[in-house]
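TEACHING EXERCISE
Course module: macromolecular assemblies
Task: Read the component lines below, then compare them to the predicted structure of the full complex.
Student: A.B.
Group: 4
Components provided:
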Amino acid sequence: MIIAGRVDVDDLPRICPLLSRRTNPRYGESQTRVVEVGRVRFGGERPVVIAGPCAVENREQTLEIARAVKGSGADMLRGGAYKPRTSPHDFQGLGLEGLKILREASQETGLPVVTEVMDVRLVDQVAEYVDMLQVGSRNMQNYPLLVEVGRCGKPVLLKRGMAASLCEWLGAAEYIAKEGNLEIVLCERGIKAYPSGEYSRYSLDLSVIPAVRAETFLPVIVDPSHATGVAAMVESASRAALEFGSHGLIIEVASDRLDAVKPKCDAAQAITPRTLRKIIHFVETRQEYLAERLHVASA
Amino acid sequence: MIIAGRVDVDDLPRICPLLSRRTNPRYGESQTRVVEVGRVRFGGERPVVIAGPCAVENREQTLEIARAVKGSGADMLRGGAYKPRTSPHDFQGLGLEGLKILREASQETGLPVVTEVMDVRLVDQVAEYVDMLQVGSRNMQNYPLLVEVGRCGKPVLLKRGMAASLCEWLGAAEYIAKEGNLEIVLCERGIKAYPSGEYSRYSLDLSVIPAVRAETFLPVIVDPSHATGVAAMVESASRAALEFGSHGLIIEVASDRLDAVKPKCDAAQAITPRTLRKIIHFVETRQEYLAERLHVASA
Amino acid sequence: MIIAGRVDVDDLPRICPLLSRRTNPRYGESQTRVVEVGRVRFGGERPVVIAGPCAVENREQTLEIARAVKGSGADMLRGGAYKPRTSPHDFQGLGLEGLKILREASQETGLPVVTEVMDVRLVDQVAEYVDMLQVGSRNMQNYPLLVEVGRCGKPVLLKRGMAASLCEWLGAAEYIAKEGNLEIVLCERGIKAYPSGEYSRYSLDLSVIPAVRAETFLPVIVDPSHATGVAAMVESASRAALEFGSHGLIIEVASDRLDAVKPKCDAAQAITPRTLRKIIHFVETRQEYLAERLHVASA
Amino acid sequence: MIIAGRVDVDDLPRICPLLSRRTNPRYGESQTRVVEVGRVRFGGERPVVIAGPCAVENREQTLEIARAVKGSGADMLRGGAYKPRTSPHDFQGLGLEGLKILREASQETGLPVVTEVMDVRLVDQVAEYVDMLQVGSRNMQNYPLLVEVGRCGKPVLLKRGMAASLCEWLGAAEYIAKEGNLEIVLCERGIKAYPSGEYSRYSLDLSVIPAVRAETFLPVIVDPSHATGVAAMVESASRAALEFGSHGLIIEVASDRLDAVKPKCDAAQAITPRTLRKIIHFVETRQEYLAERLHVASA
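Instructor-supplied answer key:
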């Protein structure tokens, strides 16, 4: 039986000749192309930590969390102005107003900001306000959107679709690259598998990280918040992701003030600023220490 | 542990109040809302058969297949003018030229035509040339596109995402319905599961059909071509889909002329007009015969 | 990257040389080997219907259902004496007493009986009382058990493991065949996939049927009861299975007496004798009618 | 729709009352019960590392690897004497001879040894030669085997079935516990999901670890070798597993001698003794250093 549409990693040179190490030897067998967003360097020496609220709900909430994110030592701010929601009757984000709040939070804290763009007609609008455009899981194969963010030239955070194969994911990235934009960071965020919903939201698929790194030179980070959907798992998932070779993390944070309003979306997966500090402390400690000790030891 | 974003079918009244039978009692517990596309009636007495090429490749190929589809007794024509492909380097469809060819094929055969629209900016253009708009699997959660096809008012064929839960699928349909457009036909087309690629392209999930019919009044059809990816399975998959309660089929057909050029995409799943005739003969026979005999017997 | 243990259908000649059509040409490209259990012929002209209770709970319940099964026109009786249960604290079956009840029900109705054997030490005991041994999903790769049922020589119903690939399934059957026992009937019973539990118990994977039939000459049947877990889906799932090429069905039935005790296991998936009659009527009608009409038409 | 057999973690008190923290409060909300195998303590202060060949192929190979494992600082030896293989025509292990070799290797190195038992009739034989019995993935729901290893009283390593839910896994462990044997160590080893085979053998599901630890007091370890199937991923998977809360690792090792014979099974996933040393160095360093520094910092 011949099955239509069947591809495997040996087809990557045909699917994504610009991004496959096999056809684009510029970065050799293991070097990562550094993607810069302001002073932040994805794929550089140190893992990047992006943090912020799931959605921008109002100015106060966003600024409070942005300050906490900055105070924790994170590198970048995240926050949704346009939110893809399962139901059209759920909160859809503040839109343009949300973008303005994000810019204010970015300016006050000095942190570059990334936000999701869902609508191909709004790429330019969103790009005006933020430093990096996110293409979310649900739109990983929204090819007109990929083309437009490719043309826009801004750095792109391309989340993996929740049922995407490695080939489909790198094929999606190739749509951006084909427009001349190689400023792409990939992001694993959990896949659908039979246990989804029993004890975690999705199945965090960390094994894809070394596979991505073997096949392309693009940096790859992990979203432990959406992958697990459980705040209590985010810290250990973050540490595991880094040990598995992730170039960074994108994490949802909520206020820990006792009188804070509960987030409108995905409250159960948001960690507190205190837990964020622990994660960043791990990143720093691991850098300082392991860089010296482990590498010496294994030499 | 509380898991963020976890929903089940009991949440459908909140996710899709317009489409859930639990909140919209107009169609009772089992009645289907008929969606009309010209004289074609989805959810009516007789299952609808849509057939045509995967992609519109040129005028001759399309007209030849359209005539064969008409001659086989099918109800509607399908064909892709804009093709979502895993790689940007693959054939992306003829675009506007393809739409014009589809219209010509529709006019000549008298068959209404459905085609995929991927770009929210092209909804009006595509709607001008065809009778029904398809939103494909990869765009099932492209919410701006759903809103726009909802506003456009044309009947919509909404394919299930390849990892979509029932809740996510009906939530996507609700985006269309919320714009005032209830002319929605759902389409199961195979999901990603561990056997995908071993003996079929996706896993055809026929059990979702009675679940859809229990939860909403929208008609639901099946795409056996993409689900199996194997031409030799399409006939039996089609018959099984109808027995499982499907309101119709959408099938890919290729020329059986010995000198025909191989289709540019998904050639291995296209059946010949001869096999299409057998499927339609099954539909007709089953209607005439089973309607009388089986229903009498079970009365 | 080379992945350990990776196989695909092209490895079947090595995995199961006795059962693969590619290495054992005795049954050509499409002929099925008939497996006889008494007068019942799996893989013969007419699909086989096996029905009965999930578990043998007591003499009265089993005889009542056995009579109803016989009265419905089914070919064989099923019933569990040894039950594999998720919890050791759940009802585990009546064991030897259950086997005796099954034999009595078989003798009274004249229906051959199949029951599951889980314990390699009990193969001979179970074989003494029944006509066909079932190896359940949970034991599909319990190789000592497969060897022992192979040696025993009785016909075997080998259910597919809930995550088994086609290669693993046929490899398991080869363990039985290697002991000289080719009296094997395969049974698809639903696989684990991401939707499992949302609207059906498992994902009924009908596409595997033509794949099995293409690769081996063993007959293959379907268990719509466990696959869907929803009584209301069993009739349509049964019809669909037959259209997809299944050589038969194995179905769970419960009493429809108003004062009947609810079954101790899997009550929600058991159909009534009335629904069983409808399914068997479909089998018969389809045989008589379609055999003439459809085959003539497609000639 | 009511679905038969549907359970979730809230059913654990009913499924496994002996092992659920909710019904057995002896270990509180987070304490782990220590399982001792000789001087090795699963669930104690320090993660346990088990290593050894996939299969015992001969005395020389096993002793050579055992010495390397000992020299690397690992805590326990593994090795298969009875091997569950997809095909009955593949090497099935040396059986009793393999057990004797394992015992010799254990005595020479002083390392306790774990090996798989597949046949309920051989539990006593296997238990005579080794310190811990492994029940493999394929037999996770072989309930007679679970009962017998429970009665035997030896410590048990219970691997997760490749499609097992958390509830099914803990239900399987309860079969052992019900016989009075609480010396159980759980082992995650990868699950079947749609990417299986594309870039890794199974999908390593590390998120299950905190879920296991939240629901039961049994220790849980990870098998990065089978989960990934790729030797080059084992080191990073091991580190990730420990950061995600795993109480240990079980790893396949092959000789790195240039003239060594390639292992008969799963060669592509076996690491060299040199890589094993790096993993154990990580374990030790992490213990010494992180224990002080990170915990102080987060206090």
